[in-house]
Amino acid sequence: MHKENSQRPPVLQHVSQNVRRLRNSADLSQTALAEKSGVSRRMLVAIEAGEKNVSLATLDRVAEALEVAFSDLIQAPENHDYSRINELAWAGTIAGSKAVLLARAVARREVELWEFCL
């Protein structure tokens, strides 16, 4: 068992955080999710605490009960930094020429969407 977050494997941290967040977003108690998924409440408590290596089949049942993709349970939480969105990054000498960051998303590498007006 891993008592502290820092000692848990990263995937267990992601699973525990994501299951708890998605369960709360679905407005389900642990008991309700247990009934809906067929996974024991005790197992769900251990998953949310990051204390249990959980099988893929169990995670699949939890994902189905939460009506989310399996990948939503195991992915790293997104780091939403919107501080630079719609910020002027460059302005040219010609009137109206500019570059503005419109959006960003974490993919295998970071992806950014820019608008350039020349």
From TrEMBL:
InterPro entries named in the record: Cro/C1-type_HTH (IPR001387), Lambda_DNA-bd_dom_sf (IPR010982), TransReg_Diox_bact_type (IPR050807)
Record's GO cellular component terms: cytosol
This protein's UniProt keywords: DNA-binding, Transcription, Transcription regulation
Residue stretches making up the HTH cro/C1-type domain: 19-73
One Pfam short name: HTH_3
Database matches in PANTHER family: HTH-TYPE TRANSCRIPTIONAL REGULATOR, HTH-TYPE TRANSCRIPTIONAL REGULATOR SUTR
GO terms for MF: DNA binding; DNA-binding transcription factor activity
Listed name of the protein: Helix-hairpin-helix DNA-binding motif-containing protein
